[in-house]
Structures are given as C-alpha cells and as structure tokens.
C-alpha cells in the first residue's frame, strides 16, 4: 500500500519481516512485510522490508515469527462487574440479574475505578486498543462513576467509548434492579447530557467518546428510550443498548408492549446507523432485515451468550444481510476471562454449532469481526480497524513463534484457532501500551491487589458483614 504524506521531523517506528493481515476491503495480507508508523498514523504497509531513507526512525523492530494485525476493538462490556466475577454461575440472564443486582447496587467510586482498571488491563494486554464500557448502575451517593471509568481508560492509554447507561424502572415499577439503584427519568437524561458535554470528543483520533445508552427494555421506561434517542441525536453521539438477548426478553416485550424487541426499538427511534445493540441472539428474518436496512449494528458476545444460556446469535445471516457486527467481551460477571482475543475463537466455534455448521465463519471473518467490524459498529471505521496508510496507528504485533503455534503454517488461523498468542507490542495512537506481554502504562500487580481488595469490600457491604 502506498505511503501517505506526513509532516517533517515526525518520529517513526518501523516493523519489518513480519506476516501482516491488513483487514482492508480486499483482505490484503503479506507473508513477510513491513509497517511504518509516523507519529500517530500508519504511513505505509507493504511487502518486503520498509522503504530505505526513512528519517527520524526512533525504533526498528524485527518482526520475524510475528503477525501484525489492527488492534482489537471491543464493542460491549460492563467494567464494574470485574469485582463480582465467579458468582451466580449456573443462572440464566433474568435469574442472574436478580441474584447480582443487590450487590451491584452497592458499588461506589473506588470500586468502579479499580474494576475499570482491572477490565482495561486484561483487554489491553490481550491486544485490545479500543475499549468500550456500558455503565448503567448509578446508585445514589456513589460518587463520580463516569469520571472514574474515563480516568482509568485515559491512564491505561487505550482509545475509549463510555456508553453512559441508565435505568429508571426499579422493582416497584416492575423492573429487576432495586429502587435505590435506579435514577429518575429526568435525572438520567440530565446526567447523561452532562457526561456528553464534559467528555465527548468528536474529533478524528479522539481518545474519549460518549454514547447514550439506556440499559435494556426490562429496566427502563419507554420515555427514557425515546427521550434518550432524541438527546443522542441532538448531541451528535451514538446510541447503545441491550437487545433481543433472551427468549424471556422477547416474552417480556410482547406482554408489556404488544410487540417484539426490534419493533419496540423501532417505535422509540432506536434503529439507525448511529445505533448498536448488544447480543441480538433472538432475531428473526424480519428483525435482521430491519437492522440491515437501517444500518443498526450488533455487538456479538459469544462467551457471555453461552455462559448465560442465551442461545446462538445468527451472525452468519447478519453478515450476509449487511448488518454491521463487532465482538464484545460483555461484563466479566458473565465472561470471567475478560479477554476479547478469546472471543475470536469462540465466535467461530459457537457459530459453527448453528444451522450453517462449518460454513458459518472462518478465521479471517472472525478477525474482521474483532477489528474492522468493531470499528464500524463504533462509528470509527475511517480511523481504525484496518492497517492502511493514513489510519491511526492502533496495531498489535503477535508472537506466533511459540510452542503453541509452531506447527500451524497460517498465522491468521494460528491467531484465531490456536492458543492465546502473546502480545510483543501493542500501539495505540502510535504509543506503546504493551511490551513483551506486559503493560507499560500501568502496574499489573497493583491493579490485581486493588481489585481483590475492592471485591472483598463490596462482598462485605453486600452481605452486611
């Protein structure tokens, strides 16, 4: 790929002699190639060694035995759940929520900060360069939870979208969360707008963006959905929520609203190319066609869907119809590993259990879901998600020269179907975040201690001990 013009005196990083999967529109790959990073942009990608005569090269990396891909993009998560992992392990979604909401309703700012750092650390050291958090639990008096999450992402050095969630339907109104864990309609809308005003950066290369994200049909009012959509479009930000996750949700929507989830979302302004929804497991042909027609995106979370026995999303049918689809970790109370790179393998394997069997997904489609697909879902496909000149320098150098991958000739197959590959280098905006499998922007051991302490403190509060 041709080099792009860059200003003089910009520092360059050169990676050579590595396999490259660009995930561009043509799925261009190089068995042995180079990537040149100039400042925070990709300057050139191509076969063979880097061009000669490059100036201001501050680092030159021999990538022999490695695969370079775009950085992974996570499209759905709940960071706070890091400190409630391993609980309610044999529950479906509704029972799991009922079991855990009383604990979640007692989170506070230090807990959320620690949990966000733990969630971000696990993703970053596994190749995630763009993270997302759907935070919707705002107990009264808990502190600045949104600020704590955004600060954790900023300190970690990853690109980030906070989907500022909300709930206004507590137990008294037929919802699942305790009443003291929900906001009022006006309070939720005002707090969401304040978060957008304080933190959203619409510019190219932005490190922080905000989305409007009421939680789910069974924890929010119709008014919050409708007015949330109006708020998002007035502010020019994206919209996110949970949709069609379980058969119980389908039943709930039909009993309460007289229609299925997709028709309900359409009636409240929640279909469009500025919207993405998590899960979308139970979608019929009409639902998929509506998503494709409107450009509504999907965050596919295979591990969480399996953990909560939600079912198998029709990802091959969505892709065939043209629906934007990315991958999501989901909260670590329903995906205890908290790693996105394992979701590539799980997405491929789980979808092959569906009706399409071995033709459901292949390794390169799984990689595309985790990179360009995620960028498209987050509305950032012109900036990230593929390795092309002019795009932002968010990339990962995976070590495929290991015992676990030594006998797999194709590096993309090795990355997707093999054991988790070590990350030799991860760049976000041209800056290192991971080196030789360790975070360089945070102390992993300190994060582990803090999350363990906050998990124990939450457990004591929740049990009254």
Structure description:
The N and C termini lie far apart (61 Å). The protein is globular. The protein has 465 residues and is α/β, with parallel strands linked by helices. 35% of the residues lie in helices and 21% in strands. The chain has helices spanning 93-104, 109-125, 145-156, 185-199, 222-235, 247-257, 261-267, 285-294, 302-307, 315-321, 341-351, 363-377, 411-417, 444-463, and strands at residues 12-21, 29-38, 41-47, 57-62, 66-70, 72-73, 128-135, 159-166, 208-214, 238-243, 275-279, 297-300, 325-327, 395-399, 423-428, 431-435, 438-439. The model has no long low-confidence stretch (mean pLDDT 96). The strands form two sheets. Strands 1, 2, 3, 4, 5, 14, 15, 16 and 17 form a nine-stranded mixed β-sheet that branches.
Summary keywords:
single chain; 465 residues; alpha/beta; 9-stranded mixed sheet; 17 strands; 21% strand
Write the layout of secondary structure elements.
Layout: E1 12-21, E2 29-38, E3 41-47, E4 57-62, E5 66-70, E6 72-73, H1 93-104, H2 109-125, E7 128-135, H3 145-156, E8 159-166, H4 185-199, E9 208-214, H5 222-235, E10 238-243, H6 247-257, H7 261-267, E11 275-279, H8 285-294, E12 297-300, H9 302-307, H10 315-321, E13 325-327, H11 341-351, H12 363-377, E14 395-399, H13 411-417, E15 423-428, E16 431-435, E17 438-439, H14 444-463
Parallel strand pairs: 1-4, 1-5, 6-7, 7-8, 8-9, 9-10, 10-11, 11-12, 12-13
Antiparallel strand pairs: 1-2, 2-3, 5-14, 14-15, 15-16, 16-17
Helix pairs in contact: 2-3, 2-14, 4-5, 11-12, 12-13
């Amino acid at each position: 790929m041709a080099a792009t013009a860059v200003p003089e005196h910009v520092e360059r990083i050169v990676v050579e002699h590595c396999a490259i999967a660009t995930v561009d529109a043509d799925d261009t790959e190089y068995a042995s190639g180079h990537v040149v990073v100039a400042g925070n942009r990709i300057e050139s990608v191509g076969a063979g060694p880097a061009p000669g005569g490059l100036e201001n090269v501050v680092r030159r990396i021999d990538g022999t035995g490695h695969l370079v891909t775009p950085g992974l993009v996570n499209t759905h998560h709940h960071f706070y759940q890091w400190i409630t992992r391993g609980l309610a392990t044999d529950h479906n979604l509704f029972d799991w929520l009922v079991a855990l909401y009383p604990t979640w309703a007692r989170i506070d700012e230090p807990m959320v900060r620690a949990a966000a750092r733990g969630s971000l650390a696990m993703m970053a050291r596994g190749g995630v360069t763009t993270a997302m958090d759907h935070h919707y639990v705002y107990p009264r008096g808990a502190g600045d939870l949104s600020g704590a999450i955004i600060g954790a992402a900023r300190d970690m050095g990853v690109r980030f979208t906070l989907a500022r969630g909300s709930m206004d339907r507590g137990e008294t109104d037929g919802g699942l969360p305790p009443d003291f864990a929900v906001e009022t309609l006006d309070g939720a809308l005002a707090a969401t707008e304040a978060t957008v005003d304080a933190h959203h950066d619409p510019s190219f290369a932005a490190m922080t963006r905000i989305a409007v994200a009421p939680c789910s049909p069974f924890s929010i009012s119709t008014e919050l959905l409708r007015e949330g959509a109006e708020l998002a479009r007035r502010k020019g930000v994206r919209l996110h929520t949970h949709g069609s996750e379980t058969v119980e949700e389908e039943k709930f929507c039909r009993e309460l609203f007289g229609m299925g989830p997709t028709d309900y979302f359409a009636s409240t302004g929640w279909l469009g190319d500025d919207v993405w929804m998590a899960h979308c497991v139970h979608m019929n042909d009409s639902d998929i066609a509506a998503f494709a027609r409107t450009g509504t995106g999907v965050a596919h979370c295979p591990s969480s869907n399996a953990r909560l026995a939600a079912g198998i999303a029709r990802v091959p049918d969505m892709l065939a119809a043209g629906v934007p689809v990315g991958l999501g970790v989901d909260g670590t109370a329903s995906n205890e590993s908290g790693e996105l790179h394992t979701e590539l393998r799980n997405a491929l394997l789980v979808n092959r259990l569906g009706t399409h069997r071995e033709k459901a997904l292949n390794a390169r489609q799984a990689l595309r879901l985790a990179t360009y697909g995620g960028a498209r879902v987050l509305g950032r496909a012109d900036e990230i998600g593929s390795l092309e000149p002019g795009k932002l320098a968010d990339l990962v150098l995976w070590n495929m020269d290991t015992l676990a991958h030594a006998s797999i000739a194709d590096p993309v197959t090795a990355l997707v179907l093999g054991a988790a590959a070590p990350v030799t280098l991860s760049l976000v905006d041209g800056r290192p975040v991971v080196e030789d499998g360790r975070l360089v922007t945070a102390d992993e051991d300190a994060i582990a201690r803090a999350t363990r302490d906050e998990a124990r403190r939450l457990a004591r509060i929740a049990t009254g001990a």
